[in-house]
Write a structure and sequence with these properties.
Blueprint (H helix, E strand, L loop, with lengths): L11 H9 L8 H9 L4 E4 L6 H11 L3 E5 L3 H13 L4 E4 L5 H12 L5 E4 L1 H4 L2 H8 L3 E6 L14 H4 L4 H4 L5 E5 L4 H10 L6 E4 L7 E7 L3 H10 L5 E5 L3 H13 L4 E4 L5 H12 L4 E5 L12 E6 L6 H8 L9 E7 L1 H13 L4 H19 L4 H7 L13 H4 L4 E3 L1 H13 L6 H8 L5 H6 L15 H14 L2 E3 L6 E3 L1 H8 L6 E3 H13 L2
Parallel strand pairs: 1-6, 1-7, 2-4, 2-5, 3-4, 5-6, 8-13, 9-11, 9-12, 10-11, 12-13
Antiparallel strand pairs: 14-17, 15-16
Helix pairs in contact: 2-3, 15-16, 15-22, 19-20, 20-22, 22-24
Bound molecules: adenosine-5'-diphosphate and zinc ion.
The site of adenosine-5'-diphosphate (ADP) has 13 residues, from helix 3.
Length: about 525
């Protein structure tokens, strides 16, 4: 132990070694730390996992006084505090979920100047009692974590963050450092304006991960596709993300049957099971973790060689964060996304049904659409992904699937019109299978009962395979021309997008490889 300022006088590098155990600063960390040490304001833009915490934790200890960290998420605060305590740093968190005893213990420590770094939620910080207490302390640095929360433009706007602009009045002369993984220019300007720090230097790390080989493919026999992708990683650490707990269990079991050291991970496991899985993952042995997004926090095995998504994430931000767990050691790593039209329409449906406020839904909808557009993109994927974060790339990356093998497209206007008409004429309430059977003229009881074998669209698409039509369905869903009207998978037209296509006013280019991939698969599975 020892007093609060026991690290003052050590250089930032020494604190980095002694307290955090890291041999050297990474990327922009050193620049950020130097700014704070000099007493200047800074905005740090770094992808998740980039190492933002060090940027304020090191100067918080090196400068005299207590470091103050504003953070919006209680779970995150508690994690950080626990991690710092393990390193021998006296960290504490003040937020609304503390019980009375905890809160008064922390107040006691504060009063006695024993706290090195205090995490605090914005509403708690700005409550009169707390402000009063804190402004009597010497503060070494004020860090504003997840600073994009101050921007109404961003996806996680928190009105409480707005009041942070009064910080300089309460803590004059204390350097501030704002940090975020959201890099679009509009959010960045909002942060600088809202925090009233026009002089701040903006330190922006590139979000480009040149060692990630990004690929995305339509689903078609996902187990076979998964095994194909894992083949070259038999002796590696791999992560497979799935959308549901039940799926992680099922997929892990099938992989084990095929001889892979697979292990499911999700929030429903008991603490012991979780610990056992994490232990195996961290041990360095080959392993395939089949997980829901519950697997993420605090995962930093550097040699994960592949991250595979069997279900589409809800946003490019989530996707970026998850694939970012591959190749932390900088060595080439493969990331593969398998996507399907059902995923897309299900995600849209649940978003529509959610109780979130409209403003929030609109933003989530925008992110989902960006994710969908990414899957069907026919040009450089890295560029498409970075564009979501406001980062431009002049040259295509050269290491994604589309760069390595350019995607042929074909004129699918006629096929799209046939499909949209068939959906319209059957009353916009049947799923893809039914509609495709009508197009291909495949008789069934359901079809004759509904009289669909007497429609003008009956059999007009019989020269194409079922997999061809499935691919057209998926690509029209991706394009927004089709949507699922209910949870049973009934397809409906989205008038605005579908009408110009139906009228022949708009050309529809479709990816050829998608059609071929599904066709190949349907042949191999019979
Ligand atoms: P962020 O907040 O940007 O998502 P973190 O601060 O949580 O990132 O850091 C991500 C990971 O990188 C952590 O596991 C951390 O221990 C590690 N890390 C951070 N800085 C360094 C460094 N200089 N050297 C080695 N590892 C580091
Ligand atoms: Zn590329």
């Amino acid at each position: 132990e020892g007093g609060r300022d026991r690290f003052v006088g050590l250089s930032p590098r020494e604190v980095l070694h002694r307290v955090f155990g890291f041999p050297a600063f990474r990327g922009l960390q050193e620049q950020a730390v130097d700014r704070v040490m000099a007493g200047d304001d800074t905005l740090v833009l770094m992808p998740t996992g980039g190492g933002k915490s060090v940027c304020y934790q090191v100067p918080a200890l090196c400068r005299p006084g207590m470091g103050l960290v504003v953070s919006p998420l209680i779970a995150l605060m508690d994690d950080q505090v626990a991690a710092l305590r393990q390193l021998g740093v006296n960290a504490a968190a003040l937020h609304s979920e503390l019980d009375g005893d905890e809160a008064s213990r922390i107040r006691g420590d504060l009063f006695n100047g024993r706290v090195d770094i205090l995490y605090v939620s914005p509403e708690r910080l700005l409550s009169p009692g707390t402000l009063d207490r804190l402004s009597r302390q010497q503060i070494s640095v004020i860090a504003i974590d997840e600073a994009h929360c101050i921007s109404a433009w961003g996806h996680e706007f928190r009105p409480e963050y707005r009041a942070l602009q009064t910080l300089p009045e309460h803590f004059p002369g204390v350097p501030r450092i704002a940090l975020t993984a959201t890099a679009d220019p509009r959010t960045r300007n909002d942060i600088l304006t809202a925090l009233a720090m026009p002089e701040a230097e903006v330190l922006s790390a590139s979000f480009h991960r040149p060692n990630l080989m990004i690929a995305a493919r339509p689903k078609g026999g996902e187990m076979r596709q998964l095994v194909d992708a894992l083949q070259k990683h038999r002796n590696d650490a791999c992560i497979v993300y799935c959308g549901s707990r039940a799926r992680t269990e099922r997929i892990a079991a099938s992989l084990r049957e095929k001889g892979y050291p697979a292990c499911a991970f999700h929030a429903g496991l008991s603490p012991q099971e979780k610990r056992a899985a994490l232990h195996r993952f961290r041990s360095g042995e080959p392993i395939v973790i089949v997980a829901t997004i519950a697997f993420g926090m605090g995962i930093d095995r550097p040699d994960v060689r592949t991250v595979i998504h069997l279900d589409m994430p809800a946003s490019p931000e989530a996707y970026y964060q998850q694939i970012g767990r591959a190749g932390r050691d900088g060595l080439p790593s493969d990331v593969l996304l398998l996507y399907g039209g059902e995923d897309m329409s299900r995600a849209r449906y649940w978003l529509d049904q959610s109780n979130a406020p409209d403003s929030e839904k609109r933003i989530m909808r925008g992110r989902l659409e960006a994710m969908i557009a990414f899957t069907e993109s026919t040009s450089c994927r890295t560029r498409a992904l970075l564009a979501c974060f406001g980062e431009g790339m002049t040259e295509p990356c050269g290491h994604c699937d589309n760069c390595r093998a350019p995607v042929p497209t074909f004129d699918g206007t006629q096929a799209a019109r046939m499909l949209l008409s068939a959906i319209y004429r059957t009353g916009q309430r049947y799923g893809a299978l039914h509609v495709i059977a009508v197009l291909r003229g495949k008789p069934s009881d359901n079809i004759s009962r509904a009289g669909h074998d007497r429609l003008s669209v009956w059999g007009i698409g019989k020269d194409k395979t079922e997999t061809f039509w499935r691919s057209v369905v998926r690509q029209l869903i991706a394009r927004g021309a089709l949507m699922t009207g209910d949870e049973h998978g009934g397809l409906r037209l989205n008038e605005e997008v579908a009408r110009p296509i139906l009228r022949g006013e708009e050309e529809v280019r479709l990816r050829e490889d998608a059609v071929e991939a599904s066709a190949r698969n349907s042949r191999s599975t019979g």
